[in-house]
Write a structure and sequence with these properties.
single chain, 17 strands, Spore Coat Polysaccharide Biosynthesis Protein SpsA, Chain A, 23% strand, 4-stranded mixed sheet
Length: 360
């Protein structure tokens, strides 16, 4: 595995997991599932099965470097790559790919967000190995997740073959499809040749650089124009200038929409991107009334189909709620109808605006 390098993208603020996730302590550093491990720690442990621990790099905002080192005490500080500002996924991938390519031009890169929940480690590792086989042919491999429902919150990957497909098949991508409306999502699922886009990519470092040079020359020049800057005393200054100057753009828009050498590897492991509180619903154990609980002193009376997360040691009594999300952090409480979860971001923005008014 010496040529396998993993890049964990861990710079987001997880606003849809308010009130536990905050800009100061976002969701990737939280034990969202009550398992005694943060999402970042779980991701790191998962990737140790496909690349050596010393080859796992975390790209995060400079404000979170201390948090990363606290949660992953076995890594070297050089394995934490810091962004001075958030500019989406393409710049952070360009940075990490260039740095690792300067270390090892034969590197295979496994790019993963920090906030995924993936069950079945053996199936995950086998899927990644199949993707590396594709990557070593100069292809861009992405992991496709078989849809279990017509979900409108995920992007989809369309491929040609629909009959006789099985896990770990490697198929050429026909196109990426944006998050659909419900009717379109139902059509995708029925067709059988549409999988969810996991956002996990596997490719050679050289393939990344070639794609950036072809499709995003300005971004390539900023991060790859002078490779001698990497792994040198001037690296951070060089990178900071790149982030200050570059466009805010995702890797999907920067590369995936243009490239023709993309394969999808069909997976067979349980997966969730944990984008919202509601995404936890299928991954937490439920009581006889359909309630998913995280906390040791939660007392429910007549409550049904609720998600409740209360800090350890704190007591909650909940009576009669049905289809609600109840979340308590150290200093905030949220009681939200499940059906209104998509409005949470706007609610939080309104709360923050009111706080600013009070302070001013």
């Amino acid at each position: 595995m010496k040529n396998n390098y993993s890049i964990i993208m861990a710079g987001g603020i997880g606003s849809r997991f308010w009130p536990m996730s905050t800009p100061e302590y976002p969701k990737q550093f939280l034990d969202i599932l009550g398992l005694g491990k943060s999402l970042l720690q779980m991701t790191f442990e998962r990737l140790e099965h496909v690349s050596p621990s010393e080859n796992i790099y975390i790209v995060t905002n400079k404000e979170y470097k201390t948090l990363v080192l606290e949660q992953l005490p076995g890594i070297r500080p050089e394995q934490v790559l810091t962004e001075p500002e958030r500019k989406n996924t393409a710049p952070c991938i360009a940075y990490a790919a260039a740095k690792i390519h300067a270390l090892n031009p034969d590197a295979n890169l496994i790019i993963s967000p920090a906030d995924h929940l993936i069950i079945q480690q053996d199936n995950f590792s086998a899927t990644i190995q199949a993707a590396i086989t594709s990557a070593e042919q100069g292809r861009i491999a992405t992991i496709g997740i078989k849809p279990t429902r017509p979900d409108t919150g995920y992007g989809y990957i369309e491929f040609e073959q629909a009959e006789g497909i099985q896990a770990k098949d490697i198929l050429p991508v026909k196109q990426f499809r944006e998050k659909p409306d419900l009717a379109t999502a139902e059509t995708f699922v029925a067709a059988g040749n549409f999988y969810w886009n996991s956002g996990i990519f596997i490719w050679k470092s050289q393939t990344v650089l070639d794609a950036l040079k072809a499709f995003q020359p300005a971004l390539f020049d900023l991060f790859c124009g002078d490779m001698s800057q990497y792994n040198s005393p001037t690296e951070q200054e060089y990178v900071d200038h790149g982030f200050a100057t570059c466009e805010d753009i995702s890797i999907d828009f920067a590369v995936m929409e243009h490239a023709k050498n993309i394969d999808v590897v069909l997976s067979n492991f349980d997966w969730s991107d944990l984008g919202t509180w509601g995404s936890l619903d299928t991954h937490l154990e439920k009581d006889a009334s359909g309630n998913a609980l995280v906390g040791d002193k939660i007392h429910l009376f007549g409550a049904k189909n609720c998600i409740v997360n209360i800090p350890k040691g704190k007591t909650a009594v909940i009576d009669g709620l049905e289809d609600y999300i109840v979340i308590q952090s150290d200093d905030k409480l949220m009681i939200l109808k499940k059906e209104n979860e998509q409005a949470l971001k706007s609610y939080v923005n309104e709360v923050n605006a009111s706080i600013k008014e009070v302070i001013s």
